[in-house]
Amino acid sequence: MSITSLSQPATGPRSALPVSLQGVGRTFATPTGPRTVLADVDLDLRAGEIVALIGPSGCGKSTLLRQVSRLDTPDRGAILVDGTAAGGVDHRCAVAFQEPRLLPWRTLRQNVALGLPHGTPRAAGAARVDELLDLVGLEQSAGLRPRQVSGGMAQRTSLARALARNPGVLLLDEPFGALDALTRLKMQDLLLEVHAAEPTTVLLVTHDVEEALYLADRVVLLGAPQHGAARSVRRVVTVPGARPRDRASAALAELRADLLEGLGVHTHHIPSPSADDRTVDGAVPLATRSIPDSENPS
Amino acid sequence: METILGSTGTGPVVDRDGQPLRALNQLDAGAPHGDEPAGADAGTGGAGRTGWADRRAVRVLGGALLPVVLVAAWHWVTATGIVPPFRLAGPTAVLAAAVDMAERGELYQHVAISVQRVLAGFAVGALLGLVTGAVVGLSRVADILFAPTLGAIRAVPSLAWVPLLILWMQIGEDSKVTLIAIGSFFPVYTTVAGALRHVDHNLVEVGRAYGLRGPSLFTTVQLPAVLPTVVSGLRLAMAQAWLFLVAAELIASSMGLGFVLTDSQNNGRIDRMLLAIVLLAVIGKVTDSLIGLGEKRLLTRWA
User: Fold this and answer.
1) What confidence tens digit (pLDDT) does each residue in B47-85 have?
2) What topology does CATH give the domain A45-75+84-247?
3) How many CB atoms lie under 10 A from the CB of residue A72?
4) In chain B, is it the N or the C terminus that has fewer CB atoms within a 10 Å radius of its CB?
């Protein structure tokens, strides 16, 4: 799954676009009266940035993503992609869902082709689809149907389909949530490779704090200020360090514990002034203990 | 090397020429480049349970077994006189009746007119059913306006239409074809409307997310999603068409297999009655198999 030299996209120029959410709110009518899911969400995404959206279950993460893609329309506020609001479903955005949602009667190649922008010339479209299948490592399986492939391969197809759109903004709704743990780690690295090869603004909904810290430039914590209130942005955390990051980094572990506490999870984490020589109860993380021994034989 | 076709644990499943059967080797096809464990949903085609039962010769011989036994038993009870001839004519008598009618040129005429009525009525009814089903299945407004009325009309038993149709259209081809069209309309309408209403909402949303709307959404997502259901609706409609044909011909006709039945009842020609029933079974099964063949080809392409 290596990145081959990617030519300039066959289907027109593409660049990452900034997104601005201003006072976005969404209320749904329910049998028990109106229910406000989101209120006063203000958020700015810089072009080419990866932003992870985390929050407790049912806090409106996916709803917010659907507002940005315009699959759903906010009641209040404005969503500007590159300074302008879209009337209908925003063609500058592409969505990949938690389930691959592939059309079962189409081959993987035909499923990826569904993402091509409307009016793409046939030859250019085919070349672009081949390029993307190569990028996600599916060139050998392009002729298979969704039910013939594993969950990871289906999810890679879904990612390639979203990229076929040449999106200025890539919206990922818990894209790796349904995958097994090992495949999830591989898909995270694939996403970073793809982002390096084809820079685009990424808004990623996840329930996995570690995933958020591994992938994102900034992590946005969505939640209600008090129980029952409408959800809004509660915290924005800038993640330190350039990607690819050390999954076992001590600094990220601190941040992880911090965010989990923010999500209402008790982490039993014992903060320490220096993460490098932690000796509390001998609970030294394996990574920090073994690396100095092997690298500095004194 | 002797390998039982389709047995598990003997490498790729091959057909009689030694070519790997693609459908049975999906797991192998996915394995070399799957850098993650093959998912639980890969290769659920039931490989291993297929094999000898899929061979054409086995299917044809197995399917013919029961009819052969039945004809043999039929011959035995009539030839030995266990059942008197005025209650049940033997197979040879039925065959003789067929030859007799064929020599007079009547047999072909009766079969042809019946087939023609069924095909004409089926074509009209199925087409109207497809269009109406699509409109009611896709449009909430049409669903609210038309679905209850159509449901009430469907509840009217087929024979109830006959006096009215004869009054309006007289006894002729029109009234019979109309009755058959009514019969084939409802299975198609019901299955198409129901299937379109229940197309996976997630897939429709994917279509919308990728800029599909209206007709392009219909042809790209909704129509392919319901196509297998539409074909089973057509199969049901074909069975209904034969049902309504006989109803129409029994009541008022001068030709056709239904007429052969009533005419022979009046003349006491039990051999001809049995002939008509055998012909209805055979022709009905042939038309059903033709649609089934199309369904099979469609499903291998589709899912």
Assistant:
1) 455 677 778 888 888 888 999 999 999 999 988 888 888
2) Rossmann fold (3.40.50)
3) 15
4) N
